[in-house]
Amino acid sequence: MSIKISIKKNINNKDIKNYVLFCEKNFKINTIKKEITNDELSYIAGLLKNNDLKKNIYSFDVSSKKKIILINIKDQSNSSDVEKLGAELYDFIKVNKIKHLVINSDSLNAKPGKDFIGRFLHGLKLKSYEFLKYKTKKEITNVNISIHGNKNKNTIQNQFKYKALEDGIFFAKDLVSEPGNILHPDEYAKRISTLKKNGLKINVYDEKKLKKLGMNALLGVGQGSIRGSYLVTIEWKGLKNNSRPLAFVGKGVCFDTGGYSLKPAKFMEDMTYDMAGSATVVGLMKNLALRKAKINAVGVVGLVENMVSGNAQRPGDIVKSYSGKTIEILNTDAEGRLVLADALTFTEKKFQPKFMIDLATLTGAIIVSLGSEYAGLFSNNDKLSSQLLDSGKKVEEKLWRMPLHKNFDKLINSKNADMQNINYVGGAGSTTAAQFLQRFILNKTPWAHLDIAGMAFSKYGGALNSGGATGFGVRLLNKLIEDHYE
Prior knowledge:
The chain is of the alpha/beta class. Helix content is about 35%, strand content about 20%.
């Protein structure tokens, strides 16, 4: 659905076909008295009296040509609740096939919460995302929404901010939604390079450069593919000084067969989204550039394809990582941690960041633990963890902190190398994966690992997502930056 939003100072009531008005809790209609006629008010009051009012949106056909849509505001101070209301209006528009809508901001109460209209429309637009690129028959509906009234205007500045965030999220969703035959590492690196036009500095390290650097953990994952393997850095310099950047690192396994430790055929098609962590990083960096964020930041993504071939990595292989530490590969399907191992050490050494946050669809074990309600958070720093948890609550991209402890190390120690890439004893799959990653933080940089395996893709959709790629993490990390680092 294509949504066009305009702000109009004056509007002729006779021309309004679908009129959106806001009511206070439990559909108190005192705030809309001045916005409609007495006859319309009496008619609506009578209908409300005989309704159990369990929904947040009700519509009333007050004439053959005019529909009044009432929206109940429960907690206008909570951003996520306001965004969910906007998303509910999108669903209403879609079901009722509405093409023109007037939203009256004057029906809001005196204190509707900061930037209510902006947050409301942001939720509506987030819910409107669809990936229709490969549909030969596209049913695209154009919806025109006019904002009328003098209260709580969606200012140009706020529109700019939300538009940047939406563009970043939608870019991430587009990347995750692409099939593996289209978005292989070669193509992915090209698409990231297009972000140069937004003011981002892009460096693409190809296989030749990676071999010279000694990134054998990352290269080992991709060696079975006919496609290239890459490490791509995305830099945003929003400050005039040379302050240390914030760093975001993403796993970009464009398709994951599991290698010789082959995945079951059932649901293997979903492994196109095994690059969702990298997509979050790319979408976040695009957002920061578009909104001219007043920070220095860097995104680093490792792009590979984990395939089966005569040249593919074998169980039992030993590789030397960029850090110099050696890894015994006991399971070729535990590949994401190998990509991140080299990416994390490289990021820390090259950019010396204030902190590093990595995102990855890393383990099925985190889904066993947390389902699709929380992403797993592992960290060596309590302050950074607290900030992430707080930001996640505010945008309802929830995190749950999981344990790290030196006692888990014995589960990944190898007899033949410095470490092995899985815990063969069993149990604590997500924790031992995070414990593995922590070994590649060499200089005690504050670090957090977000295992988003249960959050990156939704079969059924959610409050702000209609199903498919969720873009999880873009809003969370943008909020972290806004609240704590700008």
